[in-house]
Amino acid sequence: MKKFQSVRGMRDILPKESKTFRLLEQTLINLSNQYGYEEIRTPILEDTNLFIKSIGDGTDIVEKEMYTFKNLKENSFSMRPEGTASCARALIEHGLHDSINKLWYLGPFFRHERPQKGRYRQFHQFGIEFIGVENFEADIEIISLANSIWQKLNIKPILKINTIGDIDDRKKYTKILIDYFNKYKNKLNDNEKSKIDLNPLRILDSKNPNLKDIIGSAPKIKDYISKESNEHFENLLNGLERKNILYQRDDNLVRGLDYYNRTVFEYLDNSDNSQNTICAGGRYDLLFESLCEKKVPALGFAIGLERLLDYIKDKPIQKNSVVFYIAVMNQTDNLYAQNIAELIRKISENFSVLVSYNYTNLKVQLKKADKLSADYCVIIGEEESKNNSFQLKNMNSGQQEMVLNNNIEKYINVKCIKGNNYE
Ligand code: HAM
C-alpha cells in the first residue's frame, strides 16, 4: 500500500519539538508586547501581483520560488513567501496606514527553494513591522528589540548592517554595477549572468567562490549614497554604539527583496552553515508609495523560527509551565485522581497536570514522571484517597509531603509557585 509522506521541504512538527516552538514563540510575543507591538494576522493567500509589485519581479522569490496558481476565473494567487507585503496591503486596505503601527506576526511562509538544512519550503517566521516613523531612532528601537530577544535566549548572533541609500542612489549604483559585472561576464555562471541587467545587486551576495575577488573589488554602494542617507546611517550606528550593541558594517550586504532602502541588516548565527541568517530586515520607506501612492516610512525584520531553534538547541528556554504527574496506584482511585488534577489546574493556568492510566508500582510511575520532565509527582494510594489527601513529591529535590485536599490551594501556591524557579 502507498505510504503517504509529507510534501518535500515541508515537515511535521511533532509534540516534542512543538513544545519548544511554543515556548520560543511565547518568549518572542511577550517581548514584542513589552515594546508595544500588536499582533496582525493576514491570509496565507494573496493576489500574486502584490508580491510582484512589492518584492520585485527580478528577485529569486518572485521569479522562481512562489507557490502560485490560478482559480477558475483565471485570477492568480500566491501563498505568501514573506509577511511585509501583506502587512502593508492590510493597513492600506483598512485605512490604517496614516498613523503609527507597531505590528508582529507569526506563522507559516512558503518558498519553493531547494530544501536543505535550515531551508524549507514551508517555514515559520516571527516578524516585526514598525510603520510611520522616518527617524533613525526607530531603526535603533527595532534592533534593540532583536537584541533583547537574543539576550533573553542567551545567544549572541552577529549583527551585519549596511545602508543601500535611497532609490536614486540605488539607480546610480546599479548602472555602475552593470558596467562592472559586464566586464567579468565570462566568470559568471548562467544564473549570475541573468542578474546583470535585472538585479545586479544580487550578484554581490553570490556564494560562488570564483567571484570572491571580483565581488571584493566591486564598486561599493557607500560611495554613491546621498548625504541624507549617510547621516541616517551614521546616526543609527552612533546610537547602537551608545547602547553597546555590537555590529559589523558589511558593504556588500544588499538583501534579496527590492522594497528595501537605507538600513538593511541581518543576524547570523556563529555556524558555518550556508543558511546561517536567523533574522533579517531593514527599512522600506517606498513600499507603501508603490502600493497606494502615499509615502509612509516603515521598517521591520523577520526571524526564521526553524533556524533560531536550531541555533538555541542546546540552551533550554525557560519553561513557563509547571508539570504535575499524578501517579495512581489503584484503578478504583482514578476518578479521585482526576478530581485532584482539576483542583490543581484551577490554581494556575501555568500548571499542566497529567493523570496516569497505568496502575503499576510507584517506581515505574515515578520513572514515567521523570520522562515527562514533571516538576512534581502527586502520589495517590489507597490511604490518600480514604483521607482526602495526596503525597506531593518534588522531582528535583526528592522531598515528599502529605497534602490535605482542603489545604491544596494554599499549599501549592506556596510550594509550587512562589520562589520556584521553573527551570
Ligand atoms: P527574508 O530575509 O526573506 O526577509 O527572511 C527572513 C528570515 O526568514 C531569514 O533570515 C531566515 O531566517 C528565514 N527564512 C527565509 N527563507 C527561509 C526558508 N526557505 N527556510 C527557512 N527559513 C527561511 C523577509 O522575509 C522580510 N519580510 C523581512 C522583513 C520584515 N523586512 C522588513 N520587515
Describe the structure.
By secondary structure, the protein is α+β, with helices and mostly antiparallel strands. It has 2 domains: 15-166 and 225-311, Bira Bifunctional Protein, Domain 2 (BirA Bifunctional Protein, domain 2), CATH 3.30.930.10; 322-420, 3-Layer(aba) Sandwich (Rossmann fold), CATH 3.40.50. Helices cover 38% and strands 21% of the residues. It has 15 helices and 16 strands. The chain has helices at 15-34, 48-55, 60-65, 84-93, 136-153, 167-183, 190-198, 212-216, 227-242, 287-292, 305-311, 334-347, 362-371, 382-386, 408-417; strands at residues 38-39, 45-47, 68-70, 76-79, 101-110, 122-131, 158-163, 248-249, 261-268, 277-283, 298-304, 322-328, 351-355, 376-380, 389-394, 400-404. The strands form 3 sheets. An 8-stranded mixed beta sheet has the order 1-5-6-11-10-9-7-8. A 5-stranded mixed beta sheet has the order 13-12-14-15-16, with helices on both faces. The longest helix is centred in the N-terminal third of the chain and has 20 residues, at 15-34. The radius of gyration is 27 Å and the shape is elongated. It starts with 14 loop residues before the first helix and ends in a 6-residue tail after the last helix. It binds histidyl-adenosine monophosphate.
